[in-house]
Automatic annotation (TrEMBL):
The gene is Chpf2. It is found in: Golgi apparatus, Golgi stack membrane. This is Hexosyltransferase. It comes from Tyrannus savana (Fork-tailed flycatcher). Belongs to the chondroitin N-acetylgalactosaminyltransferase family. Residues 261-288 form a coiled coil.
Length: 699
C-alpha cells in the first residue's frame, strides 16, 4: 500500500537547531581527526606474556617474526631483565607469580587500551601465531558479541559444558567482554584458586559473565596445531598444520624461525595460486567484452601501460648494460652501474633466466652468456618496466648446446602503497625571515620590502624579518663617513613608522666571503632554538601561500624544506617586443624552476644547531671549509633529517643577472654561473634569437 500513518518513521525529518537563550553559550571543541570524532577504534591489540628468563630469547623471536605484522604489540613480564632488547615495548609488573601477572596484564590492557581497540589477542612467547591469519580472522567477526575464542579445553575435574581457552595457543577477547570483565577482576583474584593463569581467566569469565571459550564462532574456526617433540616444520604436510593460526609449544628461537619460514612459504604458494586463478578468470571474462581477447593486458591483472596523448608525455627508456648506466642522476651521459641500480639489474636478469627455465625445462636449459642491451623505464600507472636482449646458451636434454639471442620483457609492479606517518604541524607557527644583503643587492631591496609589507604586514601574517648587512672590509672601514646600506636603513625606518607594532632588526657583518653557513651561524645564535627560519634571497617575493607551505613542510626534528623557486626568463629574449609577461597565457613558458639555486630554505633553529655541532666536530678548526658549503650541505651530510626538495610555484623571481662571487668555492661559483645562463631563455627562444641575428647579419 501507499505511505500511511504507519510509514511515518521512514520519512526524513529536518530537526531545527535550537539553543536555549537562558543557558550560556558553550563553544564546541572539535577533535583534530574525523576518526576521533566518529569514535572509530583500532582493530587489534596484541599482548605477549613473557618472563625474565625468556624475554631475550623466545620474546625476541616473536618480535622478529610477527611483531611487524601487528599494528600494536606489547610484552608483559613479571620481572624486568637487566637488558631489554631493542625495539620491544616491555611492561614489567614486578611479580613473577603467573596468576598475578595475568591479573595485572588484564588490568593494564583495560586501563590503557580498552577504549582504543576492538579486539585483544593474548598469546605466550612460546606460541607461533600466523599474524596475517589472526588479522583476517578479526575482520570476519562482528564486534557486537562478547567473544572468548581460542582452543577450548576442559577444566580439570570440572563440569562438562564449561571450557577455558588454552593460553599456549593464544586467544581472542572482544572489547565488550573486556569492559564487562574488568569490574570482576579483583573478585576473581581473591576467590578463584588456580595454578594456570589461562584456566584462572577462563573460570573468571565463566563465573561472572557466564561465557565459555569456543573454538569456532560466526562460521570462523580457530585452528591450532600442537607440536610434537623434535618436529621438523619443513616436513609437516598435514592439512591441520597448514591451516593453523597458532602453533605450540615452541621450545627455542631456531624452531620459531623455522616455523616462520615454513608458514611464509605456505602463504606465498597460496598467494601465487590465487594470482593464477584470478588471471584465468580475467582472461575468460575479457573474451566476453567488446574488445575481446585483444583487451587482455600483459601481465594479466596489472594496469595497461600509460598511453601518451602527445610527444611531451612519452616516458623515456633508460639504456643500461651490466656495467654502465646511460642516463645518470647528475646528467652525465655514462656512469658506472652501482648500488641499488646494480642490484636491480642483477635481480631482473636472474628472474628472466628463472622464468625461461621454468617454461622450457626439461626440454631446454638456459644459461646467460651476456646482456646485450637493457632498457628500463618507470611507468607511474603500473611500475618499473624492463626489456632485455640476452645472449643465452641453450642446452637440450641430449646435451647439445646452441647460442641464441632472446628478447624478454619484465614488469616489477607497484605493490601496496604505504602512507608514511608524519608528525602533526600547524599553520600558526611564526616564521622568522632572514635576508642576507651585499652591496650588489641594493637595487632590489626596495621591491623585496614592498612585497614583504604588502603580503605579510598588511595581512597581519605571523612573520618577522631580520636583515643581515654584509659589509666588505673596505666599506666597513668607511662606514662612519659613507654607509653603503644607509638607504636600506632609511627604508626600514619608514616601514617601522608606517607599522607601529613592527620592528625590523638588522645585524652587520664584515667579511670578504659571504658564506651562507657563516652568516647563518651568526643569526642562529641570536634567536631561540624553536625558531622557524625562512632563509630568503633579495629576489624572493614573499607571499602568504608560500609561508604556509614553509610552515607545513618544515617539521622540527624530522624534515627541512628547500624549495625550488620559479625563475622568469629574460623578457628581452622571450617576448622580443611582442607581448609582456602579464598577458602571457602559458605561465611555464615564461621561465623555469631553477634547480641550481639553494638560496631559499625553511628549517628550525634546533635542527640547524644540531647539524652544525656535528659539522664543527668533523672539520675542527678548518673554517675555510665553510666557504665551500651551503646550509643545504650542512643538513645533507650532518643531519639524519628528511630533506624535502620540491618545485615551489609560490616563489616566482623576476629575471636578473646575478653577480657571482669568485671568492666562493669553485662549485658554488659554477652553479651560480649556470643558473644565470639557464635563466636567460628556453632553447626555442634562444634558437629564435640566434636565427634573427643571423638573418640580420646576412642582409
Amino acid at each position: 500500500g501507499g505511505p500511511g500513518p504507519g510509514h511515518e518513521d521512514f520519512r526524513p525529518r529536518i530537526v531545527p537547531y535550537y539553543r536555549d537563550p537562558n543557558k550560556p553559550y558553550k563553544k564546541v571543541l572539535r577533535t583534530r581527526y574525523i576518526q576521533t570524532e566518529l569514535g572509530f577504534h583500532e582493530r587489534l591489540f596484541v599482548a605477549v606474556l613473557t618472563s625474565k628468563a625468556t624475554v631475550n630469547t623466545l620474546a625476541v623471536a616473536v618480535n622478529k617474526t610477527v611483531a611487524h605484522h601487528f599494528p600494536r604489540l606489547l610484552y608483559f613480564t613479571g620481572l624486568r631483565s637487566a637488558k631489554v632488547p631493542h625495539g620491544m615495548v616491555l611492561v614489567a609488573h614486578g611479580d613473577e607469580r603467573p596468576i598475578w601477572l595475568m591479573y595485572e596484564t588484564m588490568n593494564y590492557i583495560h586501563q590503557h587500551f580498552g577504549s582504543d581497540y576492538d579486539w585483544f589477542y593474548i598469546m605466550q612467547d612460546d606460541t607461533y601465531a600466523q599474524a596475517e591469519q589472526v588479522k583476517a580472522l578479526v575482520t570476519h567477526l562482528s564486534i557486537n558479541q562478547d567473544v572468548y575464542l581460542g582452543r577450548a579445553e576442559e577444566f580439570i575435574g570440572g563440569d562438562e559444558q564449561a571450557r577455558y581457552c588454552h593460553g599456549g595457543f593464544g586467544y581472542l577477547l572482544s572489547r565488550s567482554l573486556l569492559l564487562k570483565l574488568h569490574p570482576h577482576l579483583d573478585s576473581c583474584r581473591n576467590e578463584i584458586l588456580s595454578v594456570r593463569p589461562d584456566e584462572w581467566l577462563g573460570r573468571c569469565i565463566i563465573d561472572f559473565l557466564g561465557i565459555t571459550c569456543v573454538s569456532q564462532l560466526q562460521g570462523q574456526h580457530y585452528h591450532t596445531y600442537e607440536l610434537a617433540k623434535n618436529t621438523e616444520p619443513e616436513k609437516e604436510e598435514e592439512e591441520e598444520f597448514q591451516a593453523a593460526l597458532a602453533v605450540h609449544p615452541v621450545s627455542d628461537m631456531t624452531l620459531m624461525y623455522r616455523l616462520h619460514k615454513q608458514f611464509s612459504r605456505i602463504q606465498l604458494d597460496r598467494a601465487y595460486q590465487e594470482i593464477q586463478d584470478l588471471q584465468m578468470q580475467i582472461r575468460n571474462l575479457t573474451a566476453l567484452t567488446p574488445a575481446g581477447e585483444a583487451g587482455v593486458t600483459w601481465p594479466v591483472g596489472i594496469n595497461a601501460p600509460f598511453l601518451p596523448k602527445s610527444r611531451f608525455e612519452v616516458i623515456n627508456w633508460d639504456y643500461f648494460t651490466e656495467q654502465h648506466l646511460f642516463s645518470c642522476p647528475d646528467g652525465s651521459p655514462k656512469c658506472e652501474l652501482s648500488g641499488a641500480s646494480k642490484a636491480d639489474v642483477g635481480e631482473i636478469i636472474e628472474s628472466a633466466l628463472e622464468q625461461l627455465n621454468r617454461r622450457y625445462q626439461p626440454l631446454l636449459r638456459f644459461s646467460k652468456r651476456q646482456l646485450l642491451n637493457g632498457y628500463r623505464r618507470f611507468d607511474p600507472t603500473r611500475g618499473m618496466e624492463y626489456t632485455l636482449d640476452l645472449l643465452l646458451e641453450a642446452v637440450t636434454q641430449k646435451g647439445h648446446s646452441h647460442v641464441l639471442a632472446k628478447r624478454v620483457s619484465l614488469v616489477r609492479p607497484l605493490s601496496k602503497v604505504e602512507i608514511i606517518p608524519m608528525p602533526y604541524v600547524t599553520e600558526a607557527t611564526r616564521v622568522q625571515l632572514v635576508l642576507p644583503l651585499t652591496v650588489q643587492d641594493l637595487d632590489y631591496v626596495a621591491n623585496f620590502l614592498d612585497m614583504f609589507a604588502m603580503n605579510t604586514l598588511d595581512t597581519h601574517d605571523n612573520a618577522l624579518l631580520t636583515l643581515l648587512f654584509v659589509y666588505h672590509p673596505y666599506d666597513a672601514q668607511r662606514v662612519s663617513q659613507v654607509d653603503v646600506f644607509a638607504g636600506v636603513k632609511a627604508m626600514v625606518g619608514e616601514l617601522e613608522k608606517r607599522y607601529a607594532e613592527v620592528k625590523i632588526p638588522w645585524i652587520s657583518v664584515k667579511t670578504e666571503v659571504p658564506s651562507q653557513v657563516k652568516l647563518m651561524d651568526i643569526v642562529s645564535k641570536k634567536h631561540p632554538v624553536d625558531t622557524l627560519f625562512f632563509l630568503a634571497s633579495v629576489w624572493t617575493e614573499i607571499n602568504m601561500e608560500f609561508l604556509n607551505r614553509c610552515r607545513m613542510n618544515a617539521i622540527s626534528n624530522w624534515q627541512v624544506f628547500f624549495p625550488v623557486h620559479f625563475q622568469e626568463f629574460n623578457p628581452v629574449l622571450v617576448y622580443r617586443g611582442e607581448q609582456t609577461a602579464s598577458s602571457s597565457t602559458d605561465f611555464l613558458r615564461d621561465g623555469h624552476f631553477d634547480r641550481h639555486s639553494f638560496a631559499e630554505a625553511c628549517f628550525y633553529n634546533s635542527d640547524y644547531m644540531t647539524a652544525r655541532t656535528k659539522l664543527a666536530a668533523d672539520i675542527l678548526d678548518r673554517d675555510e671549509v665553510l666557504e665551500s658549503m651551503e646550509v643545504f650541505d650542512v643538513f645533507l651530510h650532518y643531519s639524519g633529517l628528511h630533506l624535502f626538495r620540491a618545485v615551489e610555484p609560490g616563489l616566482v623571481q623576476k629575471y636578473t643577472l646575478r653577480s657571482c662571487n669568485p671568492r666562493l668555492s669553485e662549485e658554488l661559483y659554477h652553479r651560480c654561473v649556470l643558473s644565470n645562463l639557464e635563466g636567460l631563455a628556453s632553447r626555442s627562444h634562444l634558437a629564435m634569437a640566434l636565427f634573427e641575428q643571423e638573418q640580420a647579419n646576412s642582409t
